[in-house]
Amino acid sequence: MGWYDVAKDAISIAQKIDNVELIQKIIELQTQMLDMQEENRILREQVQKNDSFLELESKLERHKEPYYSIKHGDHTENICANCWNQYHFKSLFTRQGGINYICSKCGTKAKIRVNESIDLDE
Predict the structure, then answer these.
(1) pLDDT tens digits along 30-45
(2) Where are the beta strands (DSSP E) in 1-122?
(3) Alpha-carbon 27 to chain mean position
(4) What is the C-alpha separation between 17 and 110, in angstroms, rounded?
């Protein structure tokens, strides 16, 4: 039996003994518990979003140019470091020719070469 059923049973019992004040308190408690349940749902969603963000953040490969790489099996996505750092937005680059790319969202330019990661401990 969940808390909602317990509250309903308590209201039913309070009605039988004709205690209006007790009924009002139980209804108030029931309303607060519904609010807490909604707040809990929202917090769980936020935790899930944060976990997804942290997982993606841990997979980013940093480069000298202003972009990050994310490997998905055989495929690699290059995303704009500017958009990611400021807005946590995965903005992909569009190739302009050769190694020259431009962010489709903010216009940041990068020269993207294969295997050009940097050591962040330097």
Answers:
(1) 889 889 999 999 999 9
(2) 61-62, 67-72, 75-80, 93-97, 100-103, 109-111
(3) 34
(4) 76
